[in-house]
Design goal:
Helices cover 52% and strands 0% of the residues. The protein has helices at residues 4-8, 19-36, 49-62. The longest helix is centred in the middle third of the chain and has 18 residues, at 19-36.
Length: 71
């Protein structure tokens, strides 16, 4: 079970100077979380489709599986 502190850290905001840097940083974060919790699922909320394009490109390049909904 997760501790109360872990539950409070479930949502984070990671601002970046541009969408490409944002996509790369999110890819690194996603891969780190997957290594620590390989059986868990996660969601990523982006501010707009432009942000999503660079993240999807980074995920595809790295071979990370994903499912996109409501885009």
């Amino acid at each position: 079970p997760e501790s109360k502190a872990e539950l409070n850290e479930a949502v984070h905001y990671y601002p970046h100077a541009n969408h490409v840097d944002e996509g790369s940083a999110l890819l690194s974060l996603i891969q780190s979380i997957q290594q620590k919790h390989p059986n868990d699922t996660m969601g990523v909320l982006v501010r707009g489709r432009r942000s999503l394009l660079d993240l999807v490109a980074a995920l595809n390049k790295a071979g990370v599986a994903y499912q996109a909904t409501d885009i």
